[in-house]
Design a protein that fits this description.
Structural class: mainly beta
Shape: globular
Mean pLDDT: 91
Order of helices and strands: EEEEEEEEEEEEEEEEEEEEEEEEEEE
Largest sheet: 8 strands, antiparallel
Strand content: over 45%
Low-confidence stretches: 1-22
Oligomer: single chain
Number of strands: 27
Distance between the termini: 56 Å
Length: about 350
């Protein structure tokens, strides 16, 4: 800001966006459009989240070599095509199509998909990213995942990348074969430990408008009697965690907003089952209920912990959580998200 005015600096120009005053501000001064040739296209919005059968309108803006908007579009009709970047580790296609040049329509396939579309007008191109997420229920057990990628840091180890539609999964999780607990092997989501920048993973597996559901999963931590990691599930913006070192079952949301823990003894290298639901009343208050038990045992009739919240979160994507600050991996398997029964 200088002389009471707001400026936007670019590599080639200085644009003024209006005068800042107390009270009612003046309208922003519209920046001048570039007169340079268009070099790429920018879809608006640049990323979409759709449910099966949903549609969205996509606009186009042309940009010059410095990413400044130009007037109009290049001559020609836009064409859209599914696109996979040449460097992509996961070659996946978005389950959608363009019935016309300005509309993207999700398919009806009841499975999550993610990918890109390339739009072309003459020699000018642009790219749209998107996800199609089905409605509940969600069930994931990883048994149909092909584990065929050679690990760069562990000789002889193969893995698979986590599902592409999940948010916050890449580099933090891998799908590997692990001990099932009965002498056999199972495929499970496995926390990475090689890069300490990614030692904490908060990963969302569904849509952010989800509500009134129950999420459950099998979880396990490596470790010993003195040291374990943390693993859990996320329901409507509440994390439900098994904490290894403190031997607790914890419910939290942003930590400083709500954090309640109860004792829960659990052992390393043994599978446990976590289950949580959130109930929100008409007045906005809510209760977060969670329980944990050793996999294979009968489900406890009562909830291990029930946490009231005066102003509960009304919605939030289901997810999983893992925290491996040292060399103690955590594992998640058999994830299920189902609507709450009445």
């Amino acid at each position: 800001m200088a002389n009471g005015r707001v400026y936007l600096f670019t590599t080639t120009k200085l644009f003024c966006f209006g005068t800042v005053k107390t009270g009612t501000p003046d309208p922003y001064v519209k920046a001048a459009l570039s007169t340079a040739p268009a070099t790429r296209l920018m879809p608006v919005p640049g990323e979409v989240l759709l449910r099966p059968g949903e549609k969205a309108t996509i606009g186009l803006t042309a940009l010059d070599a410095h990413s400044v908007p130009v007037a109009g579009l290049p001559e020609g009709v836009p064409t859209w095509a599914s696109f996979v970047p040449p460097t992509a580790k996961v070659r996946a296609l978005l389950g959608a199509a363009f019935p016309d040049v300005a509309t993207i329509a999700a398919g009806m396939e009841p499975r999550p998909t993610a990918g890109m579309f390339e739009v072309t007008i003459g020699a000018t191109k642009g790219y749209l990213r998107g996800r199609v997420l089905p409605h509940l229920p969600i069930k994931v057990d990883f048994e149909n995942v092909e584990i065929a990628v050679d690990h760069e840091l562990e000789t002889g180890v193969k893995f698979a990348y986590p599902p592409l539609p999940w948010i916050g999964a890449r580099f933090k999780w891998e799908v590997r074969e692990v001990a099932a607990g009965d002498g056999s092997k199972t495929k499970a989501l496995t926390k990475t430990i090689e890069n300490k920048l990614f030692q904490r993973a908060l990963t969302f597996i569904g849509a952010p408008d989800a509500k009134d559901y129950t999420i459950e999963a099998d979880v396990m931590s490596d470790g010993n009697k003195r040291k374990m990691s943390e693993v859990g599930i996320v329901n409507q913006r509440y994390a439900v965690l098994l904490k290894g070192n403190s031997q607790e079952l914890e419910v939290n949301s942003n930590l400083e907003r709500i954090r309640v823990a109860v004792p829960f003894p659990w052992k390393p290298k043994e599978w446990y089952h976590l289950k949580a639901r959130v109930d929100v009343a008409a007045d906005g208050s809510g209760v977060i209920r969670a329980k944990a038990w050793k996999r294979g045992d009968a489900e406890p009739e009562k909830w291990t912990v029930e946490v009231p919240h005066a102003k509960a979160h009304e919605n939030g994507a289901p997810g999983v959580f893992g925290f491996s600050p040292t060399d103690m991996r955590v594992y998640v398997d058999n994830i299920a998200v189902t609507p709450n029964g009445k």
